[in-house]
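Suppose a colleague, Dr. K., hands you the sequence of a protein chain of 243 amino acids and asks what its three-dimensional shape might be. Before reaching for any lab equipment, you can write down a predicted structure in token form. Begin with the sequence itself:
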Amino acid sequence: MPRLNVVSRSRATQRGLSLVELMVGITVGLFVVAAASMLMANQLTDNRRLLLETQVQQDLRATLDIVVRQLRRSGSEIRSGAGQGLLASETGTGGVPQYYTDVAPTTAAANSASIRFYLDVANQGPFIYQLNGGIVQVKYGGGSWQDLTDGNTMVVTALQFTPLNVESAPLPCAKTCTGAAGPTACWPTVVQRSFLVSITARAKNGLSGGDPNTERTMQAAVRLRNDFVNFRDTANPNLACPA
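The predicted structure, expressed as tokens, is then:
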């Protein structure tokens, strides 16, 4: 009998969790799970945003490289005897016409640019770049517009070409100018042409206007390889120096 009493006492002292303790444990566990889930969600969101930002930067870099490479070639011509020899302008009547000197914009910044250069017989320009509906487009000569950026992955919000031209002192001519402007007012000058190209874009990310959190801007300064001789004789616009 005493042995049975010991067993009964042993069983009587064994207890499980009370209802309150169980609810407190579940609540603490839910808090831990919620914190872990939130941390994982934030990490996944940050990782996705990083991937989108990287893609935007890569696409921007590729687009900017194409535009810069083409702008740098503006005005170039490889045909013999047809450089800016005889200093003839595109609309000039004397000498050898140079069809590749004109570049736009020339003074104020613009969201499009037009250049010319001699690529081959079938491709001599103009080569035009513009921003249309969040997509950077290019047009080669008389062809159709082609997309340089993918509108399904990136929305371009700004494209700007800012001319940074530097004009030299007048080049000496054999004769002086007539008029009140001065004896050298009609002498030609050499214009060193440059552009500051700026492109701003953001990831599409399922949003029509793009995700503003992924917006990035890239800029590049471009020096055109071919300088421009500016005719300044208003009386004889097709002549470099007064006759």
